């Protein structure tokens, strides 16, 4: 069996052609370009191409598979790949060790996403990069005002209602004097801030457009408390849910499991491993805190683990984040949306479930997206307007006015006269037999109907 092991570098790479039968090796140093690797794959005709997971391994793996080679992208975090007690470490030694371990079957392959999914994952990560640049620019602007003793609004108000106050200090750098150079720097940073905000808006719109056409992102968003940003990161990291055998592997993949040290009778668990994507782990913890407001099941899990102890709040949040990741993976694997009844069955299988939590899950309404929420609000506004018009018509004794989109017919002369005569009469006064006028005080229900008629929206 011929094994082609690649020790990839940024500019140059070392290729080792290893024959497992004769144990002979051949080394070639080549530039890390598509043309050179395509020629090497064509000339060597290897049975297996092995490489370490790094930046260029994505397109090199695609190129080798396109030419019909079997590939193995191995993880350098495994114990077999760690160097220990060696006197020499070179690129040739790395490539030869990679080939020998592949021949012995000691290497563990990692999942390589498709080109389309790698681009989507890169865009999700780039959104967070732009967000970090915006925060860094805002902090630099705030530092200048603090150093010069000038107060600006706190929080997000400084960049909306307080932006005019900040802009009053900006000045082109060419027009600044020796004692006001910071105003020129402020002008440059504000220009960068506006540009970054515009770019971030474009990236978010593109991600939302992708999410509307991706059933996986829609499915993950059905979990109460999980928004579009969390769903995008989970789908980008999990990719193919069938590559995980169980939920423990998913938890370990995100680094949300405790470290373990066992020796003899000692078995100690430490902090979480923090392996895997740090962005996904951060977003999952934020999602866990947010889901306490919208998801009764998440709140029940948090309270059960926390046990009303202040020292266990963060541990409970980490545990809830792990459970959310596992639930999202199971939903993607089974291609099922969030179902409160299913959560009741799963929770009761581990023990007794509180009656209040069970009732809240049973009466839980399905989660709405933005379009569904807008449609529901329009229907509610239309129903409120029609109810207000009907109450107003009952108060005045007239028939409710029906709105038509094609146009309204002109009222007849009798209806116009009846309307005019009704309008001339004061509804607050009535005639008494003795000729005196008595003022009529409107009831509470009439006052409420009048207010509702006044505040009723005029359009859907």
Please characterize this protein's 3D structure.
- The protein has 460 residues and is of the alpha/beta class.
- The chain folds into 3 domains: 2-104, Nucleotidyltransferase, domain 5; 115-212; 216-261 and 277-362, no CATH class.
- Helix content is 54%, strand content 11%.
- The chain is built from 17 helices and 9 strands.
- The protein has helices at 34-44, 57-66, 91-104, 115-147, 163-167, 181-212, 215-221, 228-238, 247-253, 278-294, 296-306, 313-334, 340-350, 355-362, 370-396, 413-424, 444-455, and strands at residues 2-7, 12-19, 25-31, 48-52, 70-74, 258-263, 266-272, 429-431, 437-439.
- The chain has a 5-stranded mixed β-sheet with strand order 3-2-1-4-5, with helices on both faces. Strands 6-7 form a two-stranded antiparallel sheet.
- α9 crosses α12 (313-334).
- It is globular and about 105 Å long.
- The N and C termini lie far apart (72 Å).
- The model is unreliable at 404-410 and 418-460 (pLDDT under 50).
- Residues 395-409, 418-442, 450-460 have a biased composition (Polar residues).
- Residues 218-302 form the Transposase IS116/IS110/IS902 C-terminal domain.
- Residues 354-460 are annotated as: Disordered.
- GO terms for molecular function: DNA binding; transposase activity.
- Residues 365-392 have a biased composition (Basic and acidic residues).
